[in-house]
Amino acid sequence: MTDILVSGASVAGATVAYWLAHHGHSVTVVERYPGLRPGGQAIDVRGPALTVLERMMLRAAADHRRTRIRGASVVDSDGNELSRDTESTPTGGLIANPDIELLRDDLIELLYEATQLKVEYLFDDSIESLDDDGTAVAVTFERAATRDFGLVIGADGLHSNVRQLVFGPEEQFIDRLGTHAAIFTVPNFLDLDYWQTWHYGDKTMAGIYSARNNTEARAMVGFMDTDLKIDYRDTEAQFGELEKRMADDGWIRPQLLEYMRTAPDFYFDEMSQIKMDRWSKGRVTLVGDAGYCCSPLSGQGTSVALLGAYILAGELAQAIQAGDDYELGFTNYQKEFQDYVKRNQWLVVDNIPGGAPIPQEVFERIVNSITLKKY
After folding, report:
1. In the beta sheet, which residues pair with residue 31?
2. Hey, which of 101, 153, 160, 189 would disulfide with 92, CB 3.0 to 4.6 Å?
3. Is 35 exposed, middle or buried (0-12, 13-18, 19+ CB in 10 A)?
């Protein structure tokens, strides 16, 4: 049994914690937020990632929490409907498919419930330093006492603290896509009935869709700017930027901007990808967005996180059982998964204005272009 620290309690972190514990390791998860992070967009679990949920005995529970969105409308700046689509939506693609679309925080809650009795969680804390001496990693936390771990896994997202500490500055690895977006919870003030409505202005876009059986809604606003650099931690600057850019594009933007300032789960960032030659160094490795963010524009970020976490834990288990060789486990994890990651990162061209549309059959072929082992 190896003592393993996972940084981050989102999809990749909770999933890798589940499988590491399943394979007999002692797992601790440290999360900067005081609890499970609320909010986030509607995400999709597709193809082989559904098999991961099934092997975790969570597929039925995830299906129960699906959004059940029936379709989407596009409106003009006065709210007049220009078109409607009951076959596909901007957030989930084709409606008639086996995928499961659910809210990000609903999936996180399911993953947490599946791990909380087997995994130690340290909320409201983060890693200050990592000292890998070759035999163990001494971890200094902001609040908890310093502890030694056999391995450390960074599952802490696009702006990974573990990646910064071990591999170097973010700018070495980030590929910015020039699209900036915010997502946050609002009341269902349009009385949407399992429905999405979108408006595309001259400079910005805005959308809203009902959530949790129409009891609330999620709003999304965004814009393109390849030159803008804004600190992902500076919420006030983000509010100001959105208010400045959204002011003249009409529809319900004034209401959304008003709700934005009091939303309990406001999130803003630039859509970006992370590209690294190696995902591991010594006794530290990365999983999910921390190592190979595809960006939400790919439509595959959640599925890639679930798959990467499953494969990392499985390859580690096999290598440690065979010869206590964690380095072989890290190597085999990247060998098994890196080509799939590259194919999924390529999918963003379908979602950037001016990009060449990817045919649905090509998208599905990429989604399903990996065969899962049973570990």
Report:
1. 123
2. 101
3. exposed
Please compute the mean of the pLDDT values over residues 50-73 and round it to a whole number. 97
Is 316:143 a contact under the CB 8 Å cutoff?
Answer: no
Q: Calculate mean pLDDT across residues 361-369.
A: 93
DSSP single-letter state for residue 26: E
pLDDT higher than 80, residue 1: no
**What is the distance between the alpha carbons of residues 326 and 316, in angstroms, rounded to a whole number?**
6
User: Between β-strands 195-200 and 71-75, what pairing exists: parallel, antiparallel or unpaired?
Assistant: parallel
**Which residue has 């939303």 as its token pair?**
263
Structure-block tokens of residue 67:
């959004």
Cβ 62 vs Cβ 56: under 8 Å? no
Tokens of 19: 């499988």
Whether residue 10 contacts residue 288, with contact meaning beta carbons closer than 8 Å, is answered with: yes
CB 288 within 8 A of CB 309: yes
- The amino acid that residue 144 corresponds to is A
Q: How do residues 180-229 score in pLDDT, each as one tens digit?
A: 999 999 999 999 999 999 999 988 999 999 999 999 999 999 999 999 99
**Sign for the pseudo-dihedral over CA of 233, 129, 169, 37:** negative
Q: SS in 3 state form for 233-245?
A: CCHHHHHHHHHHH
Averaged pLDDT, 117-140: 97
CB atoms inside a 10 Å sphere around CB 262 = 9
User: Which residue's structure tokens are 């999918």?
Assistant: 347
Torsional sign, CA 235, 161, 13, 300: positive
